[in-house]
Amino acid sequence: MALPLTNKRILVTRPRGQAEELVSSLKALRAEPLVLPVIAILPPEDWSRVDEAIDALPRFDWVIFTSVNGVRAFVERMQALGVPVSTLAERKLAAIGPATANALARVCRRPDVVPEQFLSDALPDALPDVNGLCILLPRADIARKEMAHELRRRGAEVVEVAVYRVQQETGVDAEVITNMPTPDLITLTSPSAARSLAKMLEEAGRAEWLVRVPLICIGPITADAVRELGYQPARVAREHTIQGLVQAILEEVKCHAHP
Could you tell me which CATH number the domain at 48-167 has? Predict the structure, then answer.
């Protein structure tokens, strides 16, 4: 019996080196992943603010991680500076989503808090009273500011440091997209991926894909970015993880399957 995604071409827009989980899950369902990295994850141009924060780690009550990339970049920088990971482990730790929590557990320890909703906006309510506490947010240079604003509103001192940069992937030639078969579905896992894909498709003369091909988003923030670009998400994953995204793909395909 054919698996539900047999021969379905699915565009995977994850950054280089980060597509494996989605690609292998799709292949297991006999889909044909079309891998097109649309964003690049780069180190900061200047590490000085990060280094100051790492040097001052003992003064922070909480360190909050919002992505796997943030965990990886921060801990690698600690190691480069010769600061033991135990210094981080002694702080209260929070992580958004199971992937970030697992990444933190691998290199440091399990976080104290993971909100039930895998969204940064849900984190302030998941924390105990933060009034008078000092909180460190190691994150992307383009991270949304709402969570930091809310924590400050609740009386916390919040220090945000960019531990990585997100840019449009420049190593993909427009010809690669021009010669790519039209996918049956497009997956998007971040607002920056949505914006970069739209720009790359426009440059390659394939902007119609965003209208004709169902767009499957990992979560509501990504879906909002799609709408801001003037397009409509076909489906938003209920669980904002890679496996949640795969489930949303299956639901979308089943919805359009012939009886």
Answer: 3.40.50.10090
